[in-house]
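User: Hey, my collaborator sent me this sequence without any context and asked if I could get a structure. I don't really work with proteins. Can you help?
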Amino acid sequence: MKSLVRFLLPILLLLISNFLRFGIHNLELVPEGHAGWLMKLGDVLLVVSIAWAIVAAIRIGKNQLLKRYDISVADNLKSRKVYTQYNILEKILVFIVIVMGTAIALMFFESVRSIGVSLFASAGIAGLIIGFAAQKAIGTILAGLQIAITQPIRSDDVVIVENEWGWIEEINLTYVVIRIWDKRRLVVPSTYFLERPFQNWTRTSADILGTVFIYTDYTIPFEPLRKELTRLLESSPHWDGKVNVLQVTDAKEHTLEVRALMSAATSPQAWDLRVYVREKLIEFIQKEYPQCLPRTRVVMEQGSNEK
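Assistant: No problem. I've predicted the 3D structure and written it out in structure-token form, which is a compact way to encode the shape of the chain:
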């Protein structure tokens, strides 16, 4: 029912255009001098109604196709891929329909047609200037089309752009909106994702590894620390049960660097899991092995007395 409502206004415009094009002339309701303008207005409304109906059909078709894909589930890689393609292609098709409809409507007016012919005849340097001026805008539009095809990013991807961590919220023809973790919005041009490096944490899958670094004294026992890490992960709903590793990754002058590696189904869950594990591991060391916290030693040796 909602789909049919989208066609009400285009149908109404179509009826008005037919009345202006045929009804007024046949019924002789206006003077002959004004009938020509009303007929041209009817022609314009006809083009507008057709273009409007095409746009409505494109959006209805997109909505019907996207009903098969649920983007709210955890494993939504395929759904996000389809959403990205259809949303960008919809914007491109709507843009083309609007441009073509506007061009056809303007052709009904002789003055506009003559201006267009004279402009094309004297294109020369002006055409080059306009071409250079529009180069960036056209490049941005083509970048949006390339994103739809190659998909370096998709809707709801987790990315790091300009040192900001967030989700791809909206992909438009010329720009992309990123919802940052603190609810700010970062807007970047489409060309950014084709010209500059960025991090995409969900490019192939939504699951992600998380790391926690703890610095301890050389006397720390590792097996109790590994058992505590396993206990913490098994008690957390954010752990997906795949990765559970504790390793000594560096031996510095005064401390050991211990890395806990874990996995989660999504990046927000990985963040919460890392924060939880870091806090609890530090509490465990403070309670069970306080002597193994980082410390600085000073060893004083008694030298021999020389006379």
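In plain terms: The mean pLDDT is 79. You can pass these tokens on to your collaborator as they are.
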